[in-house]
Amino acid sequence: SIAIASFGIPTLIATLGTAGIFRGIMLTFIGSSFISDIPVGLDNFATADLLQVQPENGTLARLHVLIIPIVIITILVSLLLNRTMFGRSVYALGGGVEATRRLGISVKRTQAKIYMLVGALSGLAGILYVSLQRKANPYDLAGSELDIIAAVVLGGASIMGGYGTVFGTVLGVILISLIKNNLILLGVSGSWQRAAVGALLLIGITVQAINESRKAKNRRVSTSDEAA
Questions:
Q1: Domain ranges in the chain?
Q2: How far is Cα 212 from Cα 204, in angstroms, rounded to an integer?
Q3: What is the pLDDT of residues 70-126, one digit of tens each?
Q4: Strands (E), 11-118
Q5: pLDDT for 115-164, tens place per residue?
Q6: How many angstroms separate the CA atoms of 137 and 190, rounded?
Q7: Cβ-based burial of 115 (10 A; exposed 0-12, middle 13-18, buried ≥19)
Q8: Where are the alpha helices (DSSP H) in the chain?
């Protein structure tokens, strides 16, 4: 957050750069071995179910307790973005830095808050993931950045900035997960799975670009009509 807010480094470059630095440091000190000795509380959490349904002559259906923190975080972040001044500042910043400054919003302060919040949520997500897997593997989730970006874009967030919803992103994550799970069931290799996610990302960005082009054209037509 300091690099982005203070030095104006592009968000994507700063994110990938710092991720590479911390991953390299982690692998240097931890190595390639995974840690299976996790706290008892996390281990119990990994095996806890919120609901179990056993149909007659059917497979046991389980709803993991992990759904509770996911729902709580989704609702809280959605309220934060839609019902607070900070949330409005986030959307304004996504729409344009200069326009945000003209509104009297501190760009650096808002950027710092955004990335501190994202860092905290990422750390919490890491803890939940480790508890679910019952181990900490330094190579887990490596290269999953493409899946995350694709889920956000397919969830309706504008790659140009200024628009997006938490619930849309959740739906995008569910869609990507369903697609990858079905590809696994079909016996599709991991390489082709990544190719499919990349294709979905390109399709989502292309659709957004076409919509933005149409909106810009309509605005120009409306302006011309008003001037006439």
A1: 1-142, 144-228
A2: 12
A3: 999 999 999 999 999 999 998 888 878 888 888 888 888 888 888 889 889 988 988
A4: 49-53, 61-64
A5: 889 889 988 988 888 888 888 887 787 778 888 888 888 888 887 777 88
A6: 19
A7: buried
A8: 2-7, 11-30, 40-46, 67-83, 85-95, 97-102, 107-133, 145-154, 166-185, 190-227
